[in-house]
Each structure stands twice: as structure tokens, then as C-alpha cells.
Design goal:
Elements lengths: L3 H4 L4 E4 L5 E6 L5 H10 L2 H4 L9 H9 L6 E8 L2 E10 L7 E8 L8 H15 L4 E6 L5 H9 L3 E11 L5 E11 L7
Parallel strand pairs: 5-6
Antiparallel strand pairs: 1-2, 2-3, 3-4, 4-5, 6-8, 7-8
Length: 190
């Protein structure tokens, strides 16, 4: 497995819209506690719609022990030693090896400051460097309006709407799921 420092120009500094400087870098094994702490600050209503139980120490430990940047690239935003955002590219094999799924979560204290956009730009750059042609992102628009809006301004378009696909907190199968896609060969360079 290649090391982080041989694969990408990390750590990398970026500025948020309010001038705050943060560091972007891939997750390493020693980040387990900081990542768990980060997800603990994400509201339970937001975590409910994520694909993994991100507040489970066992789940986060498994990520930290099995880091394989050729399978999943977890990208962290760090400020003053504290993880404030997590983004990831989930790479596929075989007939779907030309695309990856992207996921991003941002600490509530740092939302609406351009951090999600900065993370997405970096993940797009990495995907292009790896020769990918498409990024996919699943969103529940009723719960993730900001993600739909931001990804739309970056060139993501809805590919599929799955009506009544997600279960809301009360147990009703009443929320749509949208699969958004970005064609990396046609999208603007960020």
C-alpha cells in the first residue's frame, strides 16, 4: 500500500469563506479518537441518514485499522488538532471502476463557511488524478438540502430519484433518495 505522502500533496491548507485556515489530509490509523469525537458532534438527526453507525467505536476502529487508500480514501479537515469534517471517496472495481461514491460530513460549527465545498473540490481533484470519469453521491433531499444545493452548483446532476426509499425517524417509508452524478470529463475544473 502506498503511503499518503507518496500519493497526494498532503497536508494541504485551505481557507474558508470567513478566512479561517484549515488543514486537509487523509485519515491515518492514529485518528480514530478524533474521528469518533467529530462524529459525536454531528447531530443525531444528521447521523441517522448516514450509511454507517459513525458513533460506534467499533465501526471507527475498523476504519482506522483497515485503511486502504485504493479502496476508500478518507479525507479529514483539521483545525487546531480537532477533526471538523470528514469526506471520503469509495472506489469500485470491475465494470464500475471508472467511478466512485463521495460522502461528506461537516461539523455544525463549520457549516455555511465553504468547508463542504473545499472538501468536495479536493475529492474531485483526487478522483481526476486517479483517472475516474464519474462521481456519485446519494442524498435524501428532505434532510440534505445544502448538499443538493452545493453539489448542484459544482456540476452534479440528479441521475435517479428513488421515491419513498428512505425511512424517516418515525419509521415511515416517506423520504426520496436522489443519486447525484458528476461527469469528471465534462465538469469545470475547480
Amino acid at each position: 500500500m502506498a503511503t499518503v505522502h507518496h500519493m497526494w500533496p498532503f497536508p494541504k491548507e485551505t481557507k474558508l469563506s470567513d478566512g479561517t485556515s484549515v488543514t486537509l489530509r487523509p485519515m491515518v490509523a492514529g485518528d480514530e479518537a478524533a474521528v469518533l469525537s467529530f462524529f459525536g458532534r454531528v447531530p443525531a438527526d444528521d447521523r441517522y441518514y448516514l450509511k454507517d453507525d459513525v458513533v460506534s467505536a467499533e465501526v471507527v476502529r475498523s476504519w482506522a485499522k483497515a485503511i486502504d487508500y485504493n479502496r476508500v480514501l478518507p479525507l479529514l479537515a483539521v483545525k487546531d488538532g480537532k477533526v471538523i469534517a470528514d469526506g471520503s471517496l469509495h472506489f469500485w472495481q470491475g465494470a464500475r471502476r471508472h467511478q466512485a461514491e463521495v460522502r461528506i460530513s461537516v461539523d455544525p460549527e463549520y457549516r455555511s463557511r465553504g468547508l463542504g465545498r473545499a472538501m468536495m473540490k479536493e475529492l474531485i481533484r483526487i478522483a481526476r488524478e486517479r483517472g475516474l470519469r464519474r462521481l456519485l453521491m446519494e442524498v435524501v433531499p428532505a434532510r440534505e438540502e445544502a448538499a443538493v444545493r452545493v453539489t448542484g452548483t459544482m456540476g452534479f446532476t440528479p441521475m435517479v430519484v428513488l421515491p419513498d426509499y428512505a425511512i424517516d425517524r418515525s419509521g415511515l417509508l416517506a423520504l426520496d433518495l436522489i443519486v447525484m452524478a458528476l461527469d469528471l470529463e465534462e465538469a469545470d475544473t475547480y
